[in-house]
Amino acid sequence: MPDGFEIVALAASAGGLKALSELLAGLPADFPAALVVVQHLDPRHRSLMAEILGRRTALAVRQAADEDRAQPGTVFIAPPDHHLLVNPGGVLTLTRTELVHFSRPSADLLFESVAASYRERAIAVVLSGSGSDGAMGAKAIKKMGGTLIVQDPATAEFSGMPGAARQNAPADFVLQLGEIAGALRSLVAERPAA
Hints:
7-stranded parallel beta sheet; alpha/beta; 9 strands; single chain; two-stranded antiparallel ribbon
């Protein structure tokens, strides 16, 4: 049996900044799991996403750097034009390998690395976005025993990513955006005492 969830991997594209802002605003500073985020961004511009999200949540938010270590209460955001992978022990790796589904960073690669490293202790969340990035990774999360939360495609600003994830893998929860933070708080708080 898992001893509780240790990591939440979130993926978004079009409409994602708004979705991430609302979701992260609903999590407390002492949230007991690490959070890693892939948001598709224009690689030609420096990203202000960490600063923007940092003003909207009590969590610590920073752009991920190679060899950072995922830690509870901290949000690590993939930098533009870099894939973000999470290795065993929570060590983050940035790569510039080929695009996946026309994307770098890729939600699929993030989810697949989290699934391999954390198995049943991982939660993946697919938010608003166009395209199908995240659908293969969602399947990997489920195959390894993790939990999948998908934003209800009917209520997402862009339904492509959540719709594709839902078609490709059995979601544990399909929720409206406003319900996802509460679900994460409940799931992560259910961690048994050591």
